[in-house]
Description:
By secondary structure, the chain is of the alpha+beta class.
Amino acid sequence: MRIAVIGSGGREHAISWALAKCPEVEQVICIPGNGGTAEEEKCININPANCDYTETLIGNDAIVQVCAYEKVDFAVCGPEDPLAGGIADQLWKVGIPVVGPKSKGAQLEASKDLAKSFMQKYGVACAKSATFTDAKSAHEYVDEQGAPIVIKADGLAAGKGVVVALNIEDAHAAITEFMENGKLGEAGNKLVIEEYLSGVEISILAAVSVTEETAANGKATIVPFVTARDHKRLMDGAKGPNTGGMGAIAPVADVTEKQLDAFQKTILEPTLKGLIEEKMDYRGFIFFGIMLTKSGPKLLEYNVRLGDPETQAVLPLMDFDFAAMCQAIIDGSLKDFSFKWKKGFACAPVAVSGGYPASYKKGYKISMDKNVINGLGTKVFIAGGNVDENGILVTSGGRVLAASSVGETFEQAWENSYKALEAINFTDMFYRKDIGLPGAAESL
Ligand code: AMP
Ligand code: GLY
């Protein structure tokens, strides 16, 4: 099999690695990939911007052209932006199957308003909310409701569109910034204002196979993976600014069977019903962002992709063939696919460039003592790293890499990941020391 992976982050390195491990997979074409996939067995990086596809022109999308030229059996799309832009629709149109929803399904992440309407229509457990298209009504609503309260821009805003306002002034300021000052552009023209939920968060990634056919033959399904938890704050003890994620663990030991059961009944099942009733062709992944509240799990958001860095902790726990699972998502046999997870725990702390999430420098050499890292059994997933013109792996982003280890106990996994980080170095490297430890998870 030849498989394309669209995207260039740590999540895409982990997906490419998981696919490359499968015996049936001959080559993974990473579009464009990064410095991690460049060095991964069976993987090649192709940047569509550097290609000339005049002979095989199919449509006008460079990614589609690479997939067609490379004769891939299917593609896996990592990030949400291409999905919202309709990459899955385009690939299917030229006969290339893809793991990732068509643009209609991708709206569940691309529009918070649409996602909330969907949740409310199908009775998914979530926070009470209202949607506004004019600032005056939004300000009035906030005055009525009081603080704490949560202000969310409707559109995709690269993680900058949510303000958890602990006081009324911050809530008004967020409305002004998003709607009146246009800080997020179009994404802020519509706002969802939501009840504040307190608790601790988890992420549940899941495989989804919903089509007209599976809906008709009873095989439409959403299969949750092991639970995971991201750590969004920069500093130990969940302090400092929010980031794209400073590390993930899986599974999350403090989640109870009762909570998982409630998730299944009040979030997953109504979501499946909604996807079927809305006649979605949804073959891909859903990431449920969940708040574990005193009155049960509540859905904060849908993402139409795997989580980053959650994927880097979850995929090493797989005891099944990832390519075969992708194939089952595509051909509608996911409900019969045997998922098997390793018994242990995974810990994947992230090393970032000094200065992140504000400004930081790039281009520093990443040195790794591979003997030490391999000896620990740790897998390093590169996120912001590229191979430069001299063939050297250098930093190219804020989140640089994740050191992912699996252990029989969480402590073992934790220790190996942190020993591996000690064998890695780049100028101004920074990481949290407490990923997965007590007090590390933010509690709202
Ligand atoms: P979202 O993009 O909707 O997941 O929001 C981003 C983050 O804001 C979440 O991961 C939570 O930490 C926080 N958040 C979102 N909605 C709420 C809510 N209703 N109550 C408390 N915190 C929230
Ligand atoms: N880890 C959060 C996300 O992928 O959105």
